[in-house]
Amino acid sequence: MPQAHVAQTDAQQQPAPPTVLEVAGTVLSMAVVTTVITTALYGNKEQSERAFRIIPWLGLDRQSDPERAESPVQRRTPRTKR
Question: Is residue 65 part of a domain?
């Protein structure tokens, strides 16, 4: 079986440091997430409700499960008001 010849310098290379664009993207996303969470917890009622609606869009909603979203639970009979 043929084997690849890897030079010692290739195996010992360090990963490249992050670019300015990568760092800026990370900082910006952290700032947005922090702002939304802070608003959801400490904002007035209207702003808090809006922030809670944004949380699933950011991927921070741990309760959402794709399997549950695809197959919702069906009730056998519709509920009636009494």
Answer: no
